[in-house]
Amino acid sequence: MAGNESLIQEIAAGLRNSKGQLELVTAQLAQLQRQKKLAHVTAKELGSYPVDQVWRSCGKMFLLDSKTDYTQQLDADAKTIEEQIKALEVKRHYLETTVENSIEALKKAVQR
Questions:
Q1: Domains of the chain by range and CATH?
Q2: Pairwise CA distance, residues 102 & 8, whole Å
Q3: Is the pTM of this model over 0.90?
Q4: How far apart, in whole angstroms, are the C-alpha atoms of residue 112 and residue 93?
Q5: Which end of the chain is more exposed for a tag (fewer CB within 10 A), N or C?
């Protein structure tokens, strides 16, 4: 019986850890989705401006930059964000599978 209880405790600890990581990854994915959307909206808005120079925020100051350079930077940022999203999606899938497997193992251990 003591071996079964320690097994249950180990599985439960792993389950709590995986659920915590899953919540963190989900929050990170939501943040990256917002950043991606902001970059897309900003690039779209810049495309409608008739000027060649735009002011770009840089911390507490603004920099005068060419519109094409700024949109290229936004596109590069969007690609980086997309890569991060793909990596986090893989991690989320792994954690979801881990949580499901831990729950099944916990159910089996409790039934013994």
A1: 1-111 (1.10.287.370)
A2: 10
A3: no
A4: 29
A5: N
